[in-house]
Design a protein that fits this description.
Strand order of the largest sheet: 3-4-5-6
Distance between the termini: 21 Å
Largest sheet: 4 strands, antiparallel
Helix content: under 10%
Number of strands: 22
Strand content: 35-45%
Amino acid sequence: MLYLIFLNGQDFIELPDLPEAVANNVVTDAMVSGVKYIYSFSGIDSTKQFSGIHKKAFRYNTATKIWDRINDLPSGNGRIAAAASTVKNKIYILGGYEVFSGGGESSFDKVHAYDPETNEYLEDGMPIPIPIDDQVQAVYKDSLIYVVTGWSNNGNVADVQIYDPANDSWSTGTPVPNTVDYKVFGASGAILGDTLYYIGGARSGASFPATTFSRKGYIIPDNPTDIEWSGVSGIPAARCYRAAAFSNNEAII
């Protein structure tokens, strides 16, 4: 499987294959001694079976163009649908879910922290108040991680959970509207300026249909837990599900 890294939101480079095939993993980047590394954590292997869900982790050195395996995530048997964010060059892997042999699922409340410079996991952060997977996750001003909607054990939630890595604390943001247009899992989003945008995702209903609805939340700078949610018009309709999203300070890709 090939990974793509976008540059300036316009060009892209095709990376060498990972050491092994993986899907539903989480990807982020960080710097090590002035070199950019790409990281992949957890996911499911080519068997596509519950037993193939793992907690393996890999990193790619953009200077040497080599992947290598790093230590596994420090808890659980494995997970899919987690998310990773980099804040002040530390990586935080949040949520996800595991699948059991009988088909049951359980959402995670874990916050794993990883230091790219030392290549070591740090002490876990404060657990997520509402266990979550398939969330929208975005970083605000290299300081706060917004965890928006997603699936929690039995259904989609409207909650907005905000993690402050510096203080290892959680706060509650203005929830998204309690409707199927806003409450989704597998949506994609990022923050541009003071506004968080997210599109797509699967809504409640028969077979969990993917939605084309787009939303935005204006974050009040003086009170970042206060968010003004609304729909967004003018974005081409796309049934996005578990797509990648990031901001390059000029646009959301």
